[in-house]
Design a protein that fits this description.
By secondary structure, this protein is an alpha/beta fold. The chain is built from 15 helices and ten strands. Helices cover about 40% and strands about 15% of the residues. It is found in: Periplasm.
Length: about 425
């Protein structure tokens, strides 16, 4: 018998031939149909009015660009997953069934809740796969924590030395152009209120050690404003926590505290005549319960801020800063009148009304957009005499901000250098 293979594809052989294989068997056809449905469902349902809802603490994955090459195909999966219709309802259904029938939280991709993985074990060598960490950590007294507080510290994308070098590079390029530079790092809720974390959770040892090292080194090495003590002091004066129990952000009191700190850094004594008073209360969708398939709100207490002690000067303009938010007002005593350009994330959303009250001219851009378009970011920052960064601890400690790449700072710095402040 000849051992040579037939000169045609096996699918073209007669069906009775022992080497015949159909080009698409039943399993292949099933897989192909499922793949087509998975990738086309978002488009088809969109045409009929269905819109995706975010269920994680991040924007929905964008549709990949053909210019990304192979990245176009690898990006299709995250896009289709995020844009699947009724995904939020499915997550809530799974969560409800798991708790109602089995009496325990559901386990979603990446671990949706705190789990015993790593509890009681040595974390001297943290796992290389961050999916072993929970997306949500269920703490004491009903508190919920974002799992990235832990996973990003334990599985950083950049070393702490690289993070410090990136932040120092930013200070250098800004100050070399004649501008003032201020850096605020918004502490994680788990940093300010570790007492409500569970006794055991995945990554406890590695995240605790990384947090201590971060705060020991970063403020001293970069000149960052350390907000931890001030936040606890404000909470003690007000008699309530300065972070929401089921949301990862600080309250408006945290935003006011940051505004005070920045103004005093830029012009000491400028806040002496400020008057801050409570105003309206309103419900705000909490971000962490979304990861559990729950829709819950936290009560928001808003404030007025009168820099001259008179009329309220706040401006409430909701924005995610992916389109820069520009806030202007007439100068008053107690205000900072130098143009300020700011890079800030979701923590600054709780501060922007008070920044508008304290600064005559301020524009805020999201950190992710700085790395996406350094030229445009440089042009925006060049409009200011003061450049302020507010960055979240978890993203800085984990080296997750793309703008920490020194090349990004250099590209923005080139634009600033071309428009120096004298």
């Amino acid at each position: 018998m000849s051992s040579r293979l037939p000169p045609v594809h096996e699918a073209w052989l007669p069906r009775e031939h022992p080497l015949h294989r159909p080009r698409h068997g039943r399993r292949q056809l099933t897989a192909l149909v499922c793949a087509v449905l998975f990738f086309t469902a978002p488009l088809v349902t969109w045409l009929f009015g269905a819109r995706p809802e975010p269920v994680e603490n991040r924007p929905l994955a964008p549709f990949p660009s053909l210019a990304d090459g192979l990245g176009f195909f690898t990006g299709l999966g995250p896009w289709a997953t995020d844009h699947l219709p009724f995904r939020g309802g499915a997550v809530r259904s799974v969560e409800g069934i798991s708790r109602g029938v089995f009496g325990e939280p559901a386990r979603t991709s990446g671990g949706a809740h705190s789990s015993p993985i790593g509890a009681g074990q040595s974390d001297a060598k943290p796992p290389l796969d961050e999916n072993v960490f929970p997306n949500v950590i269920e703490g004491k007294n009903g508190w919920l924590y974002l799992g990235h507080d832990v996973s990003y510290r334990c599985v950083p994308k950049r070393s702490l030395d690289q993070v410090i070098a990136g932040l120092r590079r930013w200070r250098h390029v800004v100050e070399a152009s004649g501008r003032r530079f201020q850096l605020v790092i918004a502490p994680d809720k788990s940093t300010v209120y570790p007492e409500n974390m569970p006794d055991d959770y995945a990554g406890k040892d590695c995240s605790t050690a990384a947090r201590a090292e971060f705060w020991r080194r970063v403020p001293a090495a970069t000149g960052a404003i350390d907000m931890r003590g001030e936040l606890r002091a404000v909470a003690a004066r007000n008699g309530r926590p300065i972070y929401h129990d089921i949301d990862t952000h600080w309250t408006h009191e945290g935003g006011v505290a940051m505004t005070y700190q920045l103004a005093e850094r830029l012009r000491p004594g400028s806040t002496a005549g400020w008057q801050v008073r409570p105003t309206r209360q309103y419900p705000h969708p909490a971000d962490i319960p979304d990861l559990l398939g729950q829709q819950r709100t936290v009560p928001i207490q808003a404030y007025s801020l009168a820099p001259d002690g008179g009329a309220d000067n706040t401006q409430f303009r909701p924005s995610d800063f992916h389109h820069p938010l520009h806030l202007e007002s007439e100068p008053k005593p107690g205000m900072i009148d130098a143009p300020v350009r700011m890079v800030g994330d979701s923590f600054t959303q709780f501060a922007s009304p008070y920044l508008a009250a304290a600064f005559t001219d301020i524009a805020i851009q999201h950190p992710d957009d700085v790395a996406t378009d350094p030229q445009a970011a440089g042009q925006l920052l060049a409009e200011g005499r003061v450049v302020v960064f507010e960055l979240s601890e978890r993203f800085v400690a984990g080296g997750r901000y793309p703008m920490l790449d020194p090349q990004v700072a250099d590209r923005v710095g080139a634009v600033l250098a071309a428009h120096p402040v004298r």
